[in-house]
Amino acid sequence: MTPERFVELVKEVVHDGAVTGTLQGYRKPVGRWPSQTKVDRCEWFNALGEKDRQQVAEVVYDTAYAAVFHFLVVLDGMTAMWESDEPVGRFELDFVTEDFQAFRINREDGEMLHDMFHGEVLPPAWDQAYEKLRSAALSAGEPDIEREIRYAMNRNGSEAMGEFRRIAAKHHGFFVKAGLLGDVEEILRYIDRRFV
Q1: What are phi and psi of 53, to 5 degrees?
Q2: Is 95 helix (H, G, I), strand (E, B) or coil?
Q3: Which is nearest to 151 in space by CA: 174, 133, 169?
Q4: 124-139 vs 143-153: helix axis angle to the nearest 10?
Q5: What is the enclosing helix (H) or strand (E) of 103?
Q6: Whole-number Å distance between alpha carbons of 151 and 133
Q7: Contact 70, 79 (CB under 8 A)
Q8: How far apart, in Å, do the first and last CA atoms of the chain sit?
Q9: Hey, CA dihedral for 20, 22, 27, 29, is it positive or negative?
Q10: Contact call for residues 47 and 56 (beta carbons, < 8 A)
């Protein structure tokens, strides 16, 4: 177990699992006898228009991202969680195998877990597609489009995705003319797979 693999698993099992499970529960109550609260929430969610359901999905995504990110910040020792009268220390997270070999996950001399997680949330293909579009905007003498794309690249989670949706709609003609519609559509497909 490496720190990188740990973060990858946290993203898949905790972050993605929380987002997917929560949204599935909003679409259809989970369990044999769901509580009335869950049934009411499901009815409310399903009565929303597509745009409003998308907004709820983005809030769920942001919440899962923030919870995991801030927990990893604590494990990295970047935020203290103790009172001033408590002893100061640090968290050490080890993965221990069946034969008792221990592997430190949050090493003091390694990359921070929260930084690795942030890099995992948006896959490299996302960054590559963004960079391709940004470079094309610069080459075409469209600094405003490039600036908007760069701004979107520096957002987190659903904020980046929402920004890209806006850019794709606003500058659709540019992307068609530049022959980049396929790249735009690939990013939008990724966004649609992430949310409702």
Answers
A1: -60, -40
A2: strand
A3: 133
A4: 160
A5: strand 102-104
A6: 13
A7: yes
A8: 33
A9: positive
A10: no
> What would the pLDDT profile of 155-187 be if each residue is shown by its tens digit?
655 666 778 888 889 999 998 888 888 878 877
Judge residue 48's burial from the number of C-beta atoms within 10 Å of its C-beta, 0-12 exposed, 13-18 middle, 19 or more buried: middle
Q: Could you tell me where the DSSP H helices lie in the chain? A: 3-9, 17-27, 36-47, 50-75, 113-121, 124-139, 143-153, 157-170, 172-177, 181-194
115: buried, middle or exposed (CB in 10 Å: 19+, 13-18, 0-12)?
Answer: middle
Exposure class string for 95-106: b at 16+ Cβ within 10 A, else e: eeeeeeeeeebb
3-state secondary structure of 41: helix
Q: Which residue has the tokens 């469209």?
A: 142
Token pair of 120, please? 């995992």
Whole-model pTM?
0.64
**Joined tokens for residue 169:** 């709609």
Helix (H/G/I), strand (E/B), else coil: 104: strand
- Copy the structure tokens of residue 99: 């034969």
In this prediction, residue 126 carries a pLDDT of 64
Per-residue pLDDT reduced to its tens digit, 37-46: 999 999 999 9
